[in-house]
């Protein structure tokens, strides 16, 4: 087939030669020091990956710097993990220490492996998206500034801890399956500029954009109406019709969810559940959110058994006790009264083939 410029290149074309030669033969890895993973193949080959934090939204200068480092120590082989950690793949073991020294000299945070916090995955935020409640990158920076000792391995935790941020409930980040997730929430009915809607919005696609069927056409105004009973304030419609405004600096806020995970070790994968329904969206440093996240990390860190993920710990002690020991108030907002709650109660993320 002819080569086109659509889509990314096939990943196998980008593998370091040592990984390609040993494809399917990698047996296990060790963690000789924070941020360093040593992978062993059954052929006897060894490759080291060195992990460093990235702010996710990066400048071209930053990427050029990464590429220069990768050219120098890894024959150009560098990748980003799904949580935006940078991983340098070093085939020549003698280059690992010089690479670590250069990363330290350039103030890269090395870490994010094993029983600690990995890079915080997050969404676009005000910098790009149409329905963002918050500046996801700034929020992540504030939380990580507070918790980076858990990234670099200066402080350890009972198990790995994945934190995610999504700037609205559409949740482009991995919030539904992270140990601790911060989710931006709109809290009032979208406002409609009917005159503008009649001129610029395609009514059918606006109606179709609503996942809860809350939008109906208003033929009289050549616009739409939104039902307060059905709307969950997701902001989806605002992306389709610019005459709909879902944002309100007074009422928008942040919620915190806990206990999600992707791994099927010990228990099935878990969906995150609501812990804190509302915290103020308070840029530029979000003190309420950073304090709440730190509290969750420290309480779980002090009480979980070795290897016990956040949701597994809650499963063992029970939700009542969780609210008790974290000091979080249990409110009516914690009760899932969503129309499809019966189905969601019974749902896991376990896939069977
Ligand atoms: Fe946009 Fe929502 Fe995704 Fe944030 S989570 S990038 S606001 S759709
Ligand atoms: Fe529907 Fe979401 Fe718009 Fe509400 S905010 S009307 S739920 S698309």
Textual characterization of the structure:
This protein is α+β, with helices and mostly antiparallel strands and 353 residues long. It has helices at 17-21, 60-74, 96-105, 136-152, 194-200, 203-208, 236-240, 287-303, 310-317, 319-326, 341-345; strands at 26-33, 36-41, 46-52, 78-80, 86-90, 121-122, 163-166, 180-185, 191-192, 215-218, 223-226, 244-245, 253-258, 273-280. A hairpin with a 2-residue loop joins strand 1 (26-33) and strand 2 (36-41). The longest helix is centred in the middle third of the chain and has 17 residues, at 136-152. It is globular. The two termini are 31 Å apart. One iron/sulfur cluster binds at residues 190, 209-210, 212, 214-215, 226, 231-237, 246.
Question: What does the secondary structure layout of this molecule look like, with pairings?
Answer:
Blueprint: H1 17-21, E1 26-33, E2 36-41, E3 46-52, H2 60-74, E4 78-80, E5 86-90, H3 96-105, E6 121-122, H4 136-152, E7 163-166, E8 180-185, E9 191-192, H5 194-200, H6 203-208, E10 215-218, E11 223-226, H7 236-240, E12 244-245, E13 253-258, E14 273-280, H8 287-303, H9 310-317, H10 319-326, H11 341-345
Parallel strand pairs: 6-7, 7-8
Antiparallel strand pairs: 1-2, 2-3, 3-5, 4-5, 8-13, 9-12, 10-11, 13-14
Helix pairs in contact: 4-8
Which cofactors or ions or other ligands sit in this model? iron/sulfur cluster
- Sketch the major β-sheet: 5 strands, antiparallel
Using DSSP, what is the number of strands? 14
Rg on CA atoms, Å: 23 Å
Mean pLDDT rating: 92
The coarse overall form would be globular
User: What is the helix fraction of residues, given as a range?
Assistant: 25-40%
- The helix tally amounts to 11
The structure class reads alpha+beta
Question: What share of residues are in beta strands?
Answer: 15-25%
Give the low-pLDDT segments. Answer: none
* Helix and strand element order: HEEEHEEHEHEEEHHEEHEEEHHHH
Strand order of the largest sheet: 1-2-3-5-4
Distance between the termini: 31 Å
């Amino acid at each position: 087939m002819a080569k086109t410029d659509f889509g990314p290149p096939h990943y196998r074309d980008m593998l370091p030669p040592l990984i390609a030669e040993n494809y399917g033969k990698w047996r296990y890895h060790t963690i000789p020091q924070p941020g360093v993973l040593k992978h062993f193949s059954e052929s006897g080959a060894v490759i080291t990956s060195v992990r460093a934090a990235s702010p996710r939204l990066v400048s071209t200068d930053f990427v050029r710097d990464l590429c220069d480092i990768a050219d120098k120590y890894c024959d150009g082989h560098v990748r980003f993990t799904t949580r935006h950690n940078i991983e340098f793949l070093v085939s020549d073991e003698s280059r690992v220490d010089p690479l670590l020294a250069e990363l330290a000299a350039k103030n890269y945070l090395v870490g994010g492996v094993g029983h600690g916090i990995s890079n915080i995955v997050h969404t676009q935020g005000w910098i790009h998206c149409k329905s963002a409640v918050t500046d996801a990158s700034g929020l992540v920076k504030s939380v990580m500034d507070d918790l980076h000792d858990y990234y670099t391995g200066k402080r350890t935790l009972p198990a790995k801890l994945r934190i995610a941020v999504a700037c609205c409930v559409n949740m482009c980040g991995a919030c539904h399956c992270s140990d601790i997730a911060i989710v931006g929430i709109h809290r009032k009915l979208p406002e409609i500029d009917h005159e503008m809607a009649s001129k610029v919005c395609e009514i059918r696609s606006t109606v179709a954009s609503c996942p809860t069927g809350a939008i109906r056409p208003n033929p009289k105004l050549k616009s739409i109406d939104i039902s307060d009973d059905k709307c969950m304030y997701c902001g989806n419609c605002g992306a389709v019709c610019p005459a709909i405004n879902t944002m309100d600096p007074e009422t928008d806020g942040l919620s915190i969810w806990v206990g999600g995970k992707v791994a099927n070790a010990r228990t099935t994968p878990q969906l995150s559940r609501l812990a804190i329904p509302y915290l103020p969206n308070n840029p530029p440093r979000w003190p309420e959110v950073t304090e709440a996240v730190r509290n969750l990390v420290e309480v779980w860190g002090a009480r979980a058994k070795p290897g016990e993920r956040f949701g597994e710990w809650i499963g063992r002690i029970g939700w009542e006790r969780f609210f008790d020991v974290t000091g979080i108030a249990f409110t009516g907002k914690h009760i899932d009264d969503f129309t499809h709650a019966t189905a969601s109660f019974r749902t896991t993320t376990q896939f069977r083939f």
